[in-house]
Design brief:
With about 150 residues, the chain is of the alpha+beta class. The protein is built from 3 helices and 4 strands. It has one domain. InterPro entries: Flag_bb_rod_N, Flg_bb/hook_C_dom, FlgC.
Amino acid sequence: MDFMTAMDISASGLSAQRAQLNVISMNMANIQTTKTADGGPYQRKSVSFEATPVYSPFDQAMHDQLNRNLEGVKVLGVTADRRPFKTVYDPNHPDANDQGYVTYPDINVVEEMTNMMQAMRGYEANVQTIESAKRMFQKALMIGQG
């Protein structure tokens, strides 16, 4: 694996973690949203990841067998969670039904914060990988200078 491949893999990880952080922040921002443009309460969303080859088919043909199993991360999509909504008795709420219950999205703050910390750790790990590859590249250049 060369320096640029390590950076490509880490860059794909950074992009994937950024997408996950965006979805988590969207879930946190809409934790009390009872009515969306579609008419119902906000539906919690989650991100799906998929391994993706780092090299293009031409690059794969050019690299040796050891580098062929390298894969990055790609966001497969953002899907709506199928959890049932939670209902809270609040007859004074403008979106309350005839019995006085309001339907809220089932978003757990602790779960979202845990997912956010996991995404942040993944993001930091990818940044450290890029920094390490950059330092190794600079050291290799210094060897060439004598």
